[in-house]
């Protein structure tokens, strides 16, 4: 400081002026970013303030948004994620996306919206990722920008492909093109709903940033200099600024909302910024190059940070926070949508009512409800319209499904329909002009439908097919289709009709291109133009000038001529690279051009004044103008359809019209009526449909038999010409069905017992149907309605296929392509079977009998020949060779017809020489059987014609006459004419969803389904021979039901209180029903009708399974395979319970009684054996020591029959020796119980047999007496326990007396007989007690003749009770010790895989004693901490998981049980027999158990018992439709 000099300073908030003495106030508010938002300067100071929704931070300068922590929401192409900017926490919101680009959200509705430029869709979902749905799915090409108006609930988006900005409601409705002019490549978009403005970037040839009002008005450019790729755009609502990024200039810029004060914020370190958002004082942006999200200060560009890097491909970004969508703005449209009928769009001060694209306004607030005038054009993958009702001429996609390659179009304003052809799906469809009511009209026998025309006068649809070279017509709904022109057509293209003159015109661009005309009924055909044509495409008629216009893509011209072809002139001959579609409207002609990719128009008279309506449109096809001014035309078809029975087609005058019939049907001589149907035709199966080809007409056209049912795999086919019905087999549905040839009267005739019905033949003379089944290896016959079904041939069949009949000779012929392929013959009753041909056959497929030529014809797909021989197999010779892969074969008159898999065609040849081979129809994949039918041919003499041959059931021809026969399993009586209604002795067995019988009267052992309805999971069965009813348990429904043997009168006997009813037994004498319930561990009894239900035994039961009764002896037997397996016996009242067998038992499953030899037989599924003992448990012996997994068994005569889960079969052995083992029935899934019904089975009686022993409710026979008992729940009838005494109905005096049984009390087994002293107790006199007037619910009383009981009975009873108590105590001690100390001999199990013995095709599993630990593998349904079951329905024990629950419970179980094979399809799972575990005294921990279960060889892992069938020859037969049996060779061929 120089001495004497003075220096001045100023206070804070002031600055020193240049004079060095004066101070001036500093304007802090002028400094960028001094305050975050608002700033007020004052003398010597300043004050910062914040907008609504923000608060000032402690630094008094920056603002903090109120509300939750901000979240950055960004699109990552394959997903949408969230990241917390300050913590970099990263969560996934939506994944598995295709190509998510643009993004926005609606905070108050908790929605996120995004665009996908691969799918060309705009989607939305909840902000938690749920409820994903499409919002806009049509008419998008590259939707790169998206913005939500959260105040007025609108969605705005940009599309750089269509060069448009559009708006719609949040659900995509009322979509409108908002801006379309002077847009090139609009990209980012941002809204300011409070101001009613919209901002967007455009990076076309003149990059710019623009804004307009949100209704599209007041559009302005706010920046168009120093821009190249303006990508991202965001608005800072609190700071009243906009920010954008430019990826080419590597800069982030900002400006005021009007474009003023533009400034670069960051101009370094930005390789490729894409999208940007702002929050508080920070900018956040995504960068394609660094694949990161970055941030920086919005004022200075400093403090740059990487929020998250190593992203997949970050695209759009937004800050998810309520202050980014402030609710402060005014909703200009109010609560009633501004009174607008459709869209209410805000502007700067007010709002505008707007209409969806193409709809004109009818008033200031209302829009038209429909379009009156629009240009319709096809673009392969979509069909679009351009409304002529509005000025914008924007194209709008009609929302249609599954448009793959649309070519031809037409329309009918009468019903508002638009019609189109699709050459990818080979179909013709229609829909309303708004896309509703879409339906396929024609989708069969089309190959390349390229032209389409609507006759709007008579409602007909005309089309050309360049693949079949035909012109066809039908009603507009596709019915009554017929071929009009089929000759001399070579790739017909477009077609137009003139209902006014009755003519149709079409172009043909084959080898000699031409334009032809004919009457609309195909009369008077004439070529009108044939020179100077190359590719004549679109056609159009000018009704006013009587001209025909056409476009020629080869000549590159649009020309016209008079309707007769004269006065030809070129209208436009330049700048037409490739015209395709053509139409006229008003004074203009419109066309599409493939190469110019545009829709253009010109003056129709001069070709001048050309305009382009739309360009840059790929794949343009046909074009039409939809309008409502077609001229009315009056024709003869208006009145009564012109008198025609079917089609009335217009024709030129003087005729005016003619009648025509649907394809294949001839017109009768009156010229108006059609025949009832085809008389001579081919009919063939094509897997999913059945088709006919008429032979009455001069061309081959296939017509679908319109059966209103879904076919899956239709193989064999047959026809009854008398009734005009077609019969077919479906190997997937496993049914034989029939319907009338017109598709009506559909019905299934055989629905059970079929596997793969390859061959089928209708005996129209004898009114029978015959079929072969390669799955069951049977040939069967039945009436035409499926009744009286009988197995004719079942032995020595190995894949029978085709079958043919010769009723007059009484023969049936069939081919067999098993190991030794052969051709066989037998009488039509199965007699006199002979092999005709057995050498040099491979896959003999088709078979036909030539009655006129007395020869057999067959097709062999392996030898590739069609051969013939005499009817006895002699004089064999080859007709045709090679044929590629023949399948079906038939003949009619002098021709043979066959289907071929390889050529996918039907062929024809001369039947005698094999010459003159022609293609009948081609391009038919999935061809199967074929039949040729002539309905005019007389049928022939019916051998059984008179009174059905005297037969009560079936009358079947054979060479010398006929024989009577009975349905399967029933024997013919000695009169050789009549049959019983059912077999005398038969097996009844259950297989989950079916109950079937196998007759033991006949030797074929064929199973016949009993048609009981509503079978779900049937386990146990029994039969009552008195009433002839089947009783069964269904553990899915938890019911016991009964029905008659014919399946009728099904009723529920017990419908409540059951858990898993495993065993069932009918006491046919006392009319009682006994059952075991493994879920509740009880044995219960009731009357056969379900009344008088009583719990007999509920103590010391641990998994009771099978149950059997011996009424004559008064015994009840049951098996129990709980912790200690045992077989027990008691009296029928549950008394005198005795353990018969409790040693050397594993899983005693089935139990049956031999009433003759007084022995018990049981199967043990763990020890794999069948054993027996006497009724006291003595004289035990093993009958069969090696059975796979037996479940149930029964006995008849000298045989023991049993069901086996592992071999899926029913087997039998001699009950005395255990030898002569036979398989009765093989390949049956889910076999369960089995019983015998026989007159010898339910015999004998007891005291309960007469008048129920005098008991009022339950009567139980015992060894030497009987007792009466009362149900557990009173049924309102007074119950007496004294025989013959009915007590008076007691008058209830109080609520307590009214309830005889305390709720929840379980009845014990029958009590000891009452003495007089006991009867006196409870206010009951001795006299009343003797008269039976004292009611004792739950107690059974011994029926005695004397006054009281002998004292010895009382002593004996007391001793018995004492003994039982001692026994129970011993068992408890034994169990306790056994669980602590495991037998070392049983502890170490070895695991053995099944060894397949291919000779017998049985499975042998090493039998090992059951460890005490097996229950740890047997998950019972008990509530646990992790698996708390609400409803106990599953019981996984020993083997049955008799599953009756829903899948969720089963899934819980599967999490525990990790078995290799999973569940059997039908919910029955079998427990492992042999597992490798080291049993220790301690329990396994979780990991050990899991490991153990993974090793477990569960029976659920569908063991293939058929083992590996040895291969028969180098290549396998051609069963392409088979699911399991043999692989197809169609693909190999």
What features would you describe in this structure?
The protein has 1533 residues and is mainly beta. It is 5% helix and 39% strand. The protein is built from 8 helices and 115 strands. A 4-stranded antiparallel β-sheet has the order 9-8-7-30, with no helix packed on it. Strand 48 (536-542) and strand 49 (547-552) form a beta hairpin. It is flat, with a radius of gyration of 45 Å.
Helix count, DSSP H or I runs of 4 or more residues:
8
Strands ordered across the widest β-sheet: 9-8-7-30
Unreliable segments of 5+ consecutive residues: 1291-1350, 1378-1533
List how many beta strands DSSP finds: 115
Structural class, please?
mainly beta
- The overall average pLDDT, rounded, is 84
Coarse shape:
flat
Main sheet properties: 4 strands, antiparallel
Gap between N and C termini, in Å?
A: 111 Å
Multimeric status of the protein: single chain
The helix content, as a percent range, equals: under 10%
Q: Radius of gyration in whole Å, from Cα?
A: 45 Å
Tell me the strand percentage band: 35-45%
Which features characterize this protein?
1533 residues, mainly beta, four-stranded antiparallel beta sheet, 8 helices, flat, disordered C terminus
Helix-strand blueprint:
Elements: E1 14-16, E2 23-25, E3 38-42, E4 45-49, E5 54-56, E6 63-65, E7 71-75, E8 80-83, E9 90-94, E10 100-106, E11 111-116, E12 121-126, E13 133-136, E14 145-149, E15 154-159, E16 164-169, E17 176-179, E18 186-192, E19 197-202, E20 208-213, E21 220-223, E22 230-236, E23 241-246, E24 251-256, E25 263-266, E26 273-279, E27 282-287, E28 292-297, E29 305-308, E30 317-320, E31 343-346, E32 351-354, E33 374-378, E34 383-387, E35 395-397, E36 406-412, E37 417-422, E38 427-432, E39 439-442, E40 449-455, E41 460-465, E42 470-475, E43 482-485, E44 492-498, E45 503-508, E46 514-519, E47 526-529, E48 536-542, E49 547-552, E50 557-562, E51 569-572, E52 579-585, E53 588-593, E54 598-603, E55 611-614, E56 623-626, E57 647-650, E58 657-660, E59 680-685, E60 690-694, E61 702-704, E62 714-720, E63 725-730, E64 735-740, E65 747-750, E66 759-763, E67 768-773, E68 778-783, E69 790-793, E70 800-806, E71 811-816, E72 822-827, E73 834-837, E74 844-850, E75 855-860, E76 865-870, E77 877-880, E78 886-892, E79 895-900, E80 905-910, ...
Antiparallel strand pairs: 1-2, 3-4, 5-6, 7-8, 7-30, 8-9, 10-11, 11-12, 12-13, 14-15, 15-16, 16-17, 18-19, 19-20, 20-21, 22-23, 23-24, 24-25, 26-27, 27-28, 28-29, 31-32, 33-34, 33-56, 34-35, 36-37, 37-38, 38-39, 40-41, 41-42, 42-43, 44-45, 45-46, 46-47, 48-49, 49-50, 50-51, 52-53, 53-54, 54-55, ...
